[in-house]
Amino acid sequence: MNDDRFDRLSEDFRATPSAGPEARARLLERIGRVPPPRRGARFGELRMPAPLAAAAALLLVAAGLLGPRAWRTAWSPPARRSDAVAAASLEAAVVRFELSAPGAARVALVGDFNDWDAAATPMRRVRASDRWTVSLPVATGRHVYAFVVDGTRWVGDPLAPRAPEDGFGSPNSVLVVGGAESTL
Amino acid sequence: MAVFRPPFPLAGRGPAASASFARTGVTASPVAALYGAGMDDAALIARVLDGDAGAFTVIVDRYHGDCSRFALRMLGHRQDAEDAVQDAFLGAYRGLARYRERQTFRAWLYRILINRCRSVARQRRRRASRFVADERALADAPAAARDGDHVLRDSLQTALDALDPRLREAVLLKYGEGLDYRTMSEMTGAGISALKMRVRRACAELRPRLEESR
């Protein structure tokens, strides 16, 4: 549904009846029975139980004795890790998606790679068959996708692992595009 | 215990005026006039935390209408919506010292409200499953005891009620509140991609229902 059609939804929503002054008065009455909020303790005002404070002080002393070298060793990130991640994130692979959908008039691919837009990636019917296909470049990483049959029916990929999140009764599927291999 | 003193009577002209005059553009509410309409949320919150509890009334004036509308569309039931909105404002008021300005107050408040709506919906489902078997008792109950009057009935609500709550929440935030996906993500705790998918799915499900009703 394009945004123009949803202008009406926005209008209808804005025409929702107001809660009314009585509801507001009831709310203020309830708020009036609650102690007013106070500012939280600032850093200098933080209070800590004595044993905890002693333990914290000991830790700080120990850290001072070990010196900055020990801290550096403990906290250094793995060398060049970020470089590797950055390089991998630039990669993409061309992935071919296929679905068998008997009787369908149109099928589209939707996923996080096309903002779940059913108009963005229509699939092509393989001649004289029920199979629909489309190929497109997909960036390295984990992706969630589904197919939209005839504009309304969302179906998962029967040949791919299912995503646990946001199934809404018709689970999405997971695609992992890795450096060396892709899983579909 | 300190007492909350709004700078005008709780019932009567003040609240009604703020609700109705805002539409006609005649004037702002008496409270807003007192504090200055230009005072932003952060300044009002600072005043509340400095002991001026009445400044929270301006916050209520500013967001009560929008929050009520959202909750009503989320829950489809006036009393449930009012409960959720009251709990959300009370939660925000009690926890005001925890609010940090890296998030807008509106987003913070809506996050609380969304969680309240989810809880109310969960409680309602439990309630419904507990009483669904006693249909005869329900039929025999006096009309006044039924809560049919609290149920919002229009074509938009009928279409929204049929959606999964997460889809309804997403489409209301997107098209009802006009929010961008980043703000929606802050409010709901869901990822941007998941939210986009929910909105698309909600649109796909709403379209035939809304067109059918027009």
TrEMBL record, chain A:
Compositional bias segments (type: Basic and acidic residues): 1-14
GO biological process, any: carbohydrate metabolic process
Gene3D superfamilies: Immunoglobulins (2.60.40.10)
InterPro entries, per the entry: Glyco_hydro_13_N, Ig-like_fold, Ig_E-set
SUPFAM superfamilies: E set domains
Domain of life of the organism encoding this protein: Bacteria
CDD domains hit by this protein: E_set_Isoamylase_like_N
Annotated stretches, region: Disordered: 1-21
Signal peptide positions (record): none
One of the record's GO molecular function terms: hydrolase activity, hydrolyzing O-glycosyl compounds
Domain Glycoside hydrolase family 13 N-terminal, first and last residues per copy: 94-153
Entry-linked Pfam families: CBM_48 (PF02922)
Protein name per UniProt: Isoamylase early set domain-containing protein
Organism this protein belongs to: Eiseniibacteriota bacterium
Phylogenetic lineage: Bacteria, Candidatus Eiseniibacteriota
